[in-house]
Amino acid sequence: MTSSLVPRMQAHGESIFVTMARLAIEHGALNLGQGFPDDPAPEAVAEAARRAIAQGHNQYPPARGIPELRRAIAQHQGRYGLELDPDRHVMVTAGATGALAASVLALVEPGDEVVVIEPYYDAYPALVDLAGGVRRTVPLRQPDLALDVEALRASVGPRTRLLLLNTPNNPMGKVYSRAELAAIAEVAIAHDVVVVSDEVYEHMTFDGHEHTPVAALPGMWERTITISSAGKTFSVTGWKVGWATGPDELVEAVAHVAQWLTFTGGAPFQPALAEALDRVDELVAPMMDSLRHRRGLLLDGLTGAGLVPRTPEGSYFVVADAAPLGVADAHEWCLRLPQERGVAAVPVSAFCDAPEAVATLARFAFCKSEESIREGCRRLAG
To answer: Which of the following CATH numbers is that of domain 60-279: 3.90.550.10, 3.40.50.1100, 3.30.530.20, 3.40.640.10?
Structure first.
């Protein structure tokens, strides 16, 4: 029997996250690969959600999000020097992936080209294919992960419609420098390209690195959709509340498509997250202190197990090279790890069109408990 799935989506099988989670459960392994935190939500945020449920915030919220949350998002973006009108420049979505899907489907026609910098979050290629777009990838240079500006320029042509950017980057933990963002802006402006910037790890930067939204650069506000979410920032990934911000025309396009995808959601979570965003620095600080410590534990543990990890500037992922262990194919190695070592990791090749340069790299998450990190590294070393 032939597949019922449309041909353009047949190249996208089971997500690597689903595969590794399934294998972790099957073998009772510690899942150090998937980016859902062991940390509870801040108690103030959880209490605000409980209070909203008790107060009856359980029906459909407005399609663009409740006014209180849109105001909080607009105010939050003000920290970057961006002045947003919450009624015109903000759209609440079903998680960041909901915003990404609505953005790509709203702006890409079949045959339009979309530039994607790799390694990329694995939803990007699937969404481009879903829209009928043509993907053009620009690999980050190895091993320093510098943006290859000449390759970026060469990837853009007359059919280029979008550029998908992710900073801080998942899976690599790279925070784009101001100079790299300026190069992206120069290309986007010169070729009239819209940038969709995925910034869900914006509050997770280390060692003096600072997150800069590309929309804050000269000439970029009018051509950028900025996407973020509450899931990573407040350890509430299951709440699935994200947002897209940008100029009227682009946000209107996102809103038009989003209404036919997920319409709206997260009714009791929206007022809770409005309160949380108003206190984001206070609420995130303890989490960042803990993540900084656990990052060190994971880096030391992976090194002790014989891998060569890269110290991330942002996100809560560490990418490590397994080649010193004799691994030539990290994808195959990661599929064996849950059964052989009781640990799950994610191969970086799953995030690339051209996996050769990252064939021996695997991603580990340090948003897990100290106990899980220590035990996982012990098992890897065993």
So the answer is: 3.40.640.10
Domain spans of the chain?
Answer: 7-41+282-381, 60-279
CA neighbor of 85 nearest in space, from 100, 103, 99, 67: 67
Domain spanning 7-41+282-381: which superfamily?
Aspartate Aminotransferase, domain 1 (3.90.1150.10)
Edge-to-edge strands, sheet with 346-347: 308-310, 317-321, 361-365, 346-347
- The single-letter DSSP state of residue 314 is B
Q: Are strands 308-310 and 346-347 parallel, antiparallel or unpaired?
A: unpaired
Could you tell me if 28 and 372 are in contact, meaning their C-beta atoms sit under 8 angstroms apart?
no
Instruction: Please state the pTM of the whole predicted model.
Output: 0.97
**Does the pLDDT at position 1 exceed 90?**
no
| CA distance linking residue 115 with residue 148, whole number of Å | 13
Task: Please count the CA atoms within 13 angstroms of the CA of 349 that sit on its side-chain side.
Answer: 19
Position 277 confidence tier, pLDDT thresholds 50, 70, 90: very high
Specify the DSSP class assigned to residue 126. H
Residues whose CB falls within 8 Å of the CB of residue 13, separated by 6 or more in sequence, listed in order: none
At 107 the pLDDT is 98
Q: pLDDT category, 36, cuts 50, 70, 90? A: confident
Gap between the Cα atoms of 180 and 169, Å rounded? 13
CA-to-CA distance for 375 and 320, rounded, in angstroms?
A: 17
The overall average pLDDT reported for the chain is 97
